[in-house]
Amino acid sequence: MKVLFVTHRVPYPPDKGDRIRTYNLLKFLSERAEVHLASLADEPASEETLACLRRYCARLAVVPLGGMTRWARALCSLAVGRTATEGAFNVPQLHRTLRHWAQETRFDVSLASASSVAPYLRSAELRDVPAVVDLVDVDSQKWLDYSKASRRPRAWLYRLEGRRLRCLEQTVTGWARAVTLAAEA
User: Which site from 15, 61, 117, 160 is most exposed, i.e. has the minimal number of CB atoms within 10 Å?
Assistant: First the structure.
């Protein structure tokens, strides 16, 4: 079985919640399938990190999110009625990488580690691959919680992002084969 795993953050070192979850999922999957891991990165990954991840992957790509261009993409996305998240995580280099991989490899399943990278699984090359999206702790709810704990104008922006992202997350159930999430229970 060939699995495409797209993560919103490099899953190593497993030192906090989302990294712990994606790292352990990567380890689990690698024992049962050929995993092709594509991760977005806030900062350059160390050689130690890359070496560790390569142990679990048939193929590995770590793509930088981009500093100022990331925030420019986020603002443009907000301005056209989408979420800042969609813009911030919409990295052309990752689209190219996944397009190339999908042309070379017939994936049996694709997996997104968060709603922020779920749109990558909707590309023309991956549209027929069964998709699983892990909403982890539901990012829209975090933004809505931030809005309650903030003052204007941040509260307004956080509420806007939370509402728009909630709509995006709800559409995932219409096209993904499965959706997973973490709950307090």
Answer: 15
Torsion of CA 120, 96, 86, 136, to 10 degrees: 40
Indicate the SS3 state at residue 91: coil
The span from the CA of 117 to the CA of 136, in Å, is 12
- The tokens describing 103, both together, are 């042309």
Helix and strand numbers, DSSP H then E, in the chain: 7, 6
What amino acid occupies position 147?
A: S
Residue ranges per domain, the chain? 2-137+173-180
E strand or H helix that includes residue 32 = none
3-state secondary structure (DSSP) of residue 53: helix
* Residues linked to residue 41 through DSSP beta bridges, in sequence order: 64
Query: Smallest Cα–Cα separation from 125: which of 151, 145, 106, 152?
Result: 106
pLDDT digits 0-9 by tens, 155-165:
999 999 999 99
Q: What is the pTM of this model?
A: 0.94
Tens of pLDDT, residues 77-112: 999 999 999 999 999 999 999 999 999 999 999 999
59-68 core/surface letters (b: 16 or more CB in 10 A; e: else)? bbbbbbbbee
